[in-house]
Specification:
Layout (H helix, E strand, L loop, with lengths): L28 H9 L3 H22 L3 H18 L9 H16 L12 H27 L3 H16 L11 H21 L3 H8 L4 H5 L6
Helix pairs in contact: 4-5, 4-6, 5-6, 5-7, 6-7
């Protein structure tokens, strides 16, 4: 068998001519910074402009005296107060509901007895932790309103807290009613402080004067 030779053809792909690259292209400082930061040249220029402006303001402030700086800060604070909207009146519903809940816990802690009194020393010891919790919640609400300088809300809360306090049980032993008296005294002081700062009208003052007096507190109906 004759040996045959197969011709092998090799196809060589010739690449297309590449465009000539211009050497020694110089980029500006902003273009180089833009390439590194990945932002537009306009954004970079704006950032540098703001930095220069801030530096200029800092130099101007350094030239001010201490008195001039104090006057400047005071003027800015007054301007901010004028621009800011007036503080909204607080909603006392949550505070009142919390007082109602604490009062309910007091009555639920008192053991029920058909034979003996449920206002004796034994029942007082059962209710004492809840009485302390009521007192803390009652006085804390008024203190927070006074610290926030919400004078009218503090007066309204004081009247509501006074009513809740008058609904607490009266115990057979007079010394056990000390927590109630402490609430009365502190609420009266808080309402007086709020009235002195608020400049409320006569209607609110008359409403405060109609609060229960000592005789009313002593004649409070016992809650079973």
């Amino acid at each position: 068998m004759a040996t045959g030779f197969q011709e092998r053809r090799v196809l060589v792909e010739i690449p297309a001519p590449q465009p000539k690259i211009t050497a020694h292209i110089r980029r500006s400082y902003f273009e180089a910074l833009n390439y590194r930061m990945g932002s537009s040249p306009c954004a970079v220029k704006s950032c540098i402009k703001k930095q220069k402006l801030n530096q200029k303001k800092e130099l101007q402030l350094m030239a001010f005296s201490r008195e001039q700086l104090v006057n400047l800060v005071s003027s800015l604070m007054l301007l901010e107060e004028e621009r800011s909207p007036p503080a909204s009146r607080p909603d006392l519903k949550l505070l009142k509901e919390n007082l109602q809940l604490k009062k309910t816990h007091v009555y639920r802690s008192i053991p029920y007895s058909r034979l003996g009194s449920n206002r004796d020393a034994h029942c007082y010891r059962k209710a004492y932790p809840h009485l302390v919790a009521f007192k803390k919640t009652c006085l804390e609400g008024g203190r927070l309103l006074l610290q926030s300088e919400m004078w009218e809300a503090a007066v309204e809360y004081g009247l509501a807290a006074w009513r809740f306090t008058s609904e607490l049980p009266q115990w057979d032993t007079s010394s056990h009613n000390g927590l109630r008296e402490q609430c009365y005294r502190t609420l009266a002081a808080q309402c007086s402080a709020a009235l002195q700062h608020s400049g409320l009208g006569m209607a609110k003052c008359l409403e405060l004067r109609r609060r229960p007096g000592k005789k009313d507190r002593e004649s409070t109906v016992h809650h079973d």
